[in-house]
Amino acid sequence: MSRLLTIVASSLMLFSTAAHAAFEPFQPLPAMPPIPSDNPQTSAKIELGKQLYFDKRLSATYTVSCNGCHNVMSAGDDGKAVSRGALGLKGTRSAPTLYNVAYQTVYFWDGRAASIEDAIKEHLVSPTEMGMKDKRAVVERLWNTADYPQRFADAFGKGVPLSYETIAQALASYIRTLRTPDSDFDRYLRGDKNAISKQAKRGFDEFIEVGCASCHFWVNLSGPVPGLAFQMGEGFYELFPNYPGTKDEARYQLADDIGRYYVTKDETDRRMWRVPVLRNVALTAPYFHNGQVKTLEEAIRVMGTTQLGKTLSREQLADIAAFLHTVSGRFPEQRFPKLPSN
After folding, report:
1. HEC profile for the chain?
2. Secondary structure of 143-169 in HEC code, one letter for each residue
3. Which site from 39, 154, 198, 246 is most exposed, i.e. has the minimal number of CB atoms within 10 Å?
4. Which top CATH class is 43-175?
5. What's the pLDDT at 341?
6. Catalytic pick from 24, 47, 122, 129?
7. Residues of the chain whose pLDDT is less than 50?
8. Domain boundaries, the chain
9. What is residue 227's predicted lDDT score, i.e. its pLDDT?
10. pLDDT score recorded for residue 13
11. 3-30+184-325, superfamily in CATH?
């Protein structure tokens, strides 16, 4: 366990139930996520990014949009274990929700992208995702589409070209608007003691006491947010499975993929993963990097055996699940945008 995790875990155990709302490690979703200085939010840029997000022109076969795997009309994912991209190829990892990702410090399950913009650039040319041949093909596709050159000029200003960079910046600007504030848990943290049930309060206790909160804390229940302990590009990782060799590991093939090691080739990164976001987790089944676990309570049980080395009781599972239902927030209304006709 890292020094930061040790400090946080030890601190959490010092607090009683009555002090939960005052926990420094647990905070309501801020009004705005961190915005990079080189890509400030503007309404024109956000609207352009939304159009691109729903436009199948960004895929090699004109058949898939970003929304295909990250459905913002639902919970921000596609409900599948793994997704199939524009070229018909399946990915190897589950597509996570994009709601609240702007509060992360790194992207992808293995943390290989340092920003939303970097993640988008990889998605567009990935053979298992949008499948475009290369960056030039992406730019040419939009440049030769009615309206897009002018829309980019309106969003970025004269003299800023329609480029791979500005495509990624526009998409990232829209994705940063995907927030789900005002969950029951947020209201509880702000002082409304009746915002969550007695069972959910017991679940919050259990969440802390059994060790879940050692990794799942702060704004997104996924560790530090940019500007606190970590800066953008600095990942918060945890070993998974932490207790190798369990029956659950074998049943759900949890160690077949060795995570961040593929990025760094460093043995210390074998089976290391970015700690996933728990906001809206009750709405984003199936679970884990390979999408092999179908229900929330089963995911909690498996985390107990593989990550904490504990067998949780039925009561503990039900209570923790009740707590995790309280972290689902209010989804912003999404309407399909008007796209260029050709």
Report:
1. CCHHHHHHHHHHCCCCHHHHHHCCCCCCCCCCCCCCCCCCCCHHHHHHHHHHHHCHHHCCCCCCCHHHHCCCCCCCCCCCCCCECCCCCECCCCCCCCCCHHHCCCECCCCCECCHHHHHHHHHHCCCCCCCCCHHHHHHHHHCCCCHHHHHHHHHCCCCCCCHHHHHHHHHHHHCCCCCCCCHHHHHHCCCCCCCCHHHHHHHHHHHHCCHHHCCCCCCCCCCCECCCECCCCCCEEECCCCCCCHHHHHCCCCCCCECHHHHCCHHHCCEEECCCCCCHHHCCCECCCCCECCHHHHHHHHHHHHHCCCCCHHHHHHHHHHHHCCCCCCCCCCCCCCCCC
2. HCCCCHHHHHHHHHCCCCCCCHHHHHH
3. 198
4. mainly alpha
5. 82
6. 129
7. 1-23
8. 3-30+184-325, 43-175
9. 75
10. 44
11. Cytochrome c-like domain (1.10.760.10)
Q: What is the pLDDT of residue 21?
A: 39
- Quick check: pTM over 0.90? yes
pLDDT (0 to 100) of residue 228: 64
Average pLDDT value over all residues in the chain: 92
Instruction: Give per-residue pLDDT as tens, 13-47.
Output: 433 343 443 447 899 999 999 999 999 999 999 99
Q: Which tokens go with 329?
A: 């927030």
